[in-house]
Amino acid sequence: MKKSHSEGGLTSNLLKKPIKRWGLLFLGPTLACFLIGFVWPFIQGIWLSFCKFRLTSDAKFVGLANYFEAFKDITFLYSFGYTALFAVVSVVLINLFAFLIALALTKGIKGSNVFRTVFFMPNLIGGIVLGYIWSMIFDGVLSRFATNILMEAKYGFWGLVIVMCWQQIGYMMIIYIAGLQAIPEDMMEAASIDGASSLQTLFKITIPNVMPSITICMFLTLSNSFKLFDQNLALTGGQPFGFLADGTSIHKTEMLALNIYNTFYVSSNLRGVAQAKAVIFFILVAAISLIQLRATRSREVQQ
Fold first, then answer.
1. Residue 285 phi, psi dihedral angles, 5° rounding
2. What is the DSSP letter of 60?
3. pLDDT 10s digits, 36-92
4. Mean pLDDT lowest among 3-12, 102-111, 182-191, 248-257
5. Is 131 within 8 Å of 152 (Cβ atoms)?
6. Count of alpha carbons within 13 Å of 277, Cβ hemisphere only?
7. How many C-alpha atoms does 288 have within 13 Å on its Cβ side?
8. pLDDT, average across residues 2-8
9. Which of 102, 130, 259, 283 could cross-link to 79 by cystine, CB 3.0-4.6 Å?
């Protein structure tokens, strides 16, 4: 027995030494790519948000002027309110339908694997392609009412919600299925023996035990809703145009990411402002996501 322990220790030491010696060599390429492709552009982006520039090579420091201009931009504030409303509706609908479908597909129905594949497939389609495909579908349906998705803001809003739900529900369904399958069977059997109804089992056992999956899905859908860009660009492009009470011209279906994109390319003098908006956008999404994570994790139960 002692011999086996000593051999195990020897083997362990023999493995640790080369890992310590050559670990950085193997991690080096990945770390370099991460620093060059993410960390450095991120730091440079923060720096440029304090500058006025047309090209990154001629950036001139202007302090907080870009941030003041960003907060004075009515279209940016409108886009934030529009995006927040879209995020609330999308998060609720996606998670509700994904959970219900996952619940149905874990009841042992025939062909459940086929259904899982079919529901997951829309997630594999790119956002731009998805937006253009659905724009043709919506226009075909709405043409019967002598209108289209670009003429009325309400159609644009619900069109974006439908596209987002169609793409994301299948992905979230897979996460919920994993959570449902991880519930201990003895708990479900005990509830059945005690005479618990289906609703009591759902709210007292199933949902509390699936809270880790709910946390993940809420985080993904919330962040994806706020970051939505491709579908917004392809489906509506921010149209239709409209005016606020003070006469300010706005894109009625323009979300935050598209507003930043339009600000950057509408005028080369506003690129610093667009970069400041991007930093504000990052802080908002990070803060909202962290608050959501803290709120849902506090409700998780330990199995």
1. -65, -40
2. E
3. 988 999 999 999 999 999 888 888 999 999 999 999 999 999 999 999 999 999 999
4. 3-12
5. no
6. 26
7. 21
8. 48
9. 259
- DSSP string computed for 221-265: HHHHHHT--HHHHHHTTTPSEEE-TT--EEETT--HHHHHHHHHH
Q: Please, which residues bridge with residue 60 across strands?
A: 52
Token pair 């959501």 in the structure block, residue: 292
Q: Would you state the structure tokens that stand for residue 272, as one six-digit string?
A: 């610093």
CA–CA distances in Å: residue 292 to residues 38, 182, 219, 273, 295 = 25, 23, 7, 28, 5
Nearest to 284 by CA among 73, 39, 76: 76
Residues 299 and 282: their CA atoms lie apart, in Å, by 26
> Position of tokens 């005028």?
267
Q: Which of 25-34, 49-58, 90-99, 144-153 has the highest mean pLDDT?
A: 90-99
Its pTM stands at 0.85
Dist CA 223 CA 78 (whole Å): 19
- What residues form DSSP beta bridges with 250? 242
Strands 241-243, 249-251: pairing is: antiparallel
Q: How many CB atoms lie within 10 A of CB 288?
A: 15
33-39, long-range: CB < 8 A, 24+ apart = none
Phi/psi for 249 (5° steps) reads -80, 135
Contact between 275 and 45 under an 8 Å Cβ cutoff? The reply is yes
- Residue 153 tokens read as 């803001």
pLDDT confidence of residue 187: 86
- How far apart are alpha carbons 138 and 150 in whole angstroms? 10
